[in-house]
Amino acid sequence: MNSHVVIGFGPAGAATARLLAERGHSVKVVTASGRAPEPGIEHVALDARDTGRLTEVARGAAALYHCAAPPYHRWAGEWPALVASVCAAAEATGAVLVMLGNLYGYGPVDVPMTEDLPLAATGPKGRVRAAGWERARALHEQGRVKAVEVRASDFFGPGVTDGGHLAARVVPPLLRGKPVSALGDPDAPHSWTYLPDVARALAEVAGEERAWGRAWHVPTAPPLSVREMAGRMAAEAGTGPVAVRGLPPAVLGIGSLFSPLLRELKEIRYQFDRPFVVDASAYEAAFTERATPVDEQVKATVAWWRERLAAAR
Q1: Which DSSP helix (H) or strand (E) runs through 197?
Q2: Which of 36, 67, 173, 217 is paired with 104 by a 20 to 30 Å CA distance?
Q3: What is residue 45's three-state secondary structure?
Q4: Sign (positive or negative) of CA dihedral 209, 156, 102, 12
């Protein structure tokens, strides 16, 4: 049994912490507000930008999983300090630093994304995420930390709610047989990374020394459009076909005047206006985890949402 520290308890942090606990490890979760303990997991309230306190919590840990993020509209201002603190704690303790990344750093591309693409983001959120990994990688190359980044496409699955593009804005209306709206072109092929697969990949690379020092893509099922995914979920739910409509740019523009989230989504609109495809073949050639079959993803997600909505009545 090893000790692990997970920073953040959003969908990915929660899934990772619970997976590690299920495997018999000792797990501490760091969040700003803390939470009540749960089986195998100790929740610690602290601001992860407090390097001294974070270092004390991480002392003796085999791995430190960076799964936290500031609110979406504050990434550019707050992400650098958070990454600096996490890197410093990893250096001070010797814990393997496992960073959860995304695909923003590549910027707009017209090919399936592989890990060897340049980090050429044009928007502030993409640039700041790329800079965070480049900082950790530089420290790794200097021998000061042991770091690895695991990059996922848009999260999908049980536990993904307000922040997911196939979650709160899509699944509840779909389960009622109502039309759903999609950002961009609802027929553009898009990679959706299943949340349990994210947790399994993070846990796997933490213990694989040959993984360290570079980025890897989470095993992800072949791309499907929003319309295709909505159709599969509607079929699983038994609600019949539902209409899927693209959100017109004008609507996004008006909504962004009132919503910080919609305002920030304008930067990554390109991800939904064209094919957005991740290639995880490098990971699959090196390690054992594989993407969960799409039918299993859909079945579990529909069941989770039904249970969640029923409990809220």
Answers
A1: helix 195-206
A2: 173
A3: strand
A4: negative
Beta strands in 234-274 (DSSP E): 244-247
User: pLDDT digits over 205-232, tens only?
Assistant: 999 999 999 999 999 999 999 999 999 9
Cα distances from 89 to residues 36, 56, 175, 261, 302, in angstroms, run 24, 8, 44, 31, 39
Q: Which residues pair with 147 in a beta bridge?
A: 97
Residue 114 tokens, joined? 């592989």
Residues 6+ apart with CB under 8 A from 296: none
Instruction: Give the orientation angle of helix 294-311 with respect to helix 226-237, to 10 degrees.
Output: 60
CB contact at 8 A, 4 and 94: no
- Condensed to tens digits (0 to 9), the pLDDT of residues 44-91 reads 999 999 999 999 999 999 999 999 999 888 888 999 999 999 999 999
Measured distance CA(131)–CA(79) in Å, rounded: 10
Say how many C-beta atoms besides its own lie within 10 A of residue 160's C-beta.
26
Q: Give the tokens for residue 155.
A: 């999260």
